[in-house]
Design goal:
alpha+beta; Jelly Rolls; six-stranded antiparallel sheet; 8 helices; 35% helix; globular; binds zinc ion
Length: 217
C-alpha cells in the first residue's frame, strides 16, 4: 500500500501544466500506481479549468494543459514506445510515462556500479537535472548522504527503509539538501527506483502559489 505521496503543491502544478518535465515524470509515474493522487489531480484539473474560464489564470497555455491531460490519461503501451520492444519484466515495473526514457528492457541497459551493491543507469543528464534508475542489492545500505538540491525517489519494485519510514512500490520520497539520509534496501530482494536529482532551487510555480490558498481554504 502506498503511504508516501507527492505533496499537494506538486499535484497542483502537475494538474495545471506548470511542473517541469523531470518532476512531472515522477508525478506521472506515481499516478500510475496511486488512485488517491490521481483523484486529487483530477480535482485540481477541474479547479484549474474553472479558473481559466474565469480568466484568473493567464500563464497556462491550452497546449500545456493538453500535454498534461495526455500524460494523465497515460499513453497506451504501444503508443508510449512504438519502436522499442520491452520484455515482460520491464513492462511490469516501468510505468508507461517512463518507458520512452529507456532505450530497451531493464536487463539490456548500461548499468554502472556506483557503489557497493548499487547500480545506476542515467536516463537524462541535462543542466542541473539528472534522471536515473537505481538498483540496490537486497539488504544493501546506501551510504549516508545529503543533496545539493532536491532528490525525488520513486520505488518501482522492491522496497527500502529510511530512518523510521518504509517505502514500497509507488511510494515517493523527496529529500532536500538539509536532509541526511541512509536508505537500506529490503532484504527480500533488490530495490529498483527512479530518481530525479535537481540541483536547482525548489519549485515555486506562480500558479501553484496562487492555487494553494484556494485549495486549502
Ligand atoms: Zn499518491
Amino acid at each position: 500500500m502506498i503511504t508516501h505521496h507527492l505533496s499537494e503543491e506538486f499535484l497542483v502544478q502537475y494538474a495545471n501544466g506548470s511542473l517541469p518535465t523531470p518532476e512531472a515524470l515522477v508525478v506521472a509515474s506515481h499516478l500510475a500506481t496511486c488512485t488517491e493522487c490521481r483523484d486529487s489531480v483530477e480535482t485540481f484539473e477541474n479547479i484549474s479549468a474553472v479558473l481559466m474560464e474565469d480568466g484568473d489564470v493567464e500563464a497556462v497555455t491550452p497546449d500545456a494543459l493538453d500535454a498534461v491531460l495526455a500524460m494523465i490519461d497515460g499513453p497506451a503501451e504501444e503508443e508510449a514506445a512504438p519502436l522499442i520492444e520491452f520484455d515482460r519484466a520491464t513492462l511490469e515495473v516501468i510505468p508507461p510515462a517512463l518507458r520512452s526514457y529507456l532505450g530497451g528492457s531493464l536487463s539490456a541497459l548500461a548499468w554502472k556500479r556506483t557503489g557497493r551493491g548499487i547500480e545506476e543507469v542515467g536516463l537524462v543528464k541535462q543542466d542541473d537535472v539528472r534522471i536515473s534508475l537505481l538498483r540496490i542489492r537486497a539488504g544493501q545500505k546506501v551510504p549516508s548522504h545529503t543533496h545539493r538540491g532536491d532528490e525525488f525517489t520513486l520505488v518501482l519494485s522492491g522496497g527500502y527503509t529510511d530512518g523510521d519510514a518504509h517505502f514500497v512500490k509507488g511510494d515517493v520520497s523527496l529529500a532536500d539538501s538539509a536532509k541526511d539520509h541512509a536508505p537500506v534496501a529490503d532484504s527480500e530482494g533488490p530495490c529498483l527506483c527512479l530518481t530525479v536529482r535537481n540541483g536547482a532551487a525548489k519549485l515555486t510555480g506562480p500558479i501553484g502559489r496562487f492555487l494553494n490558498p484556494v485549495l486549502r481554504g
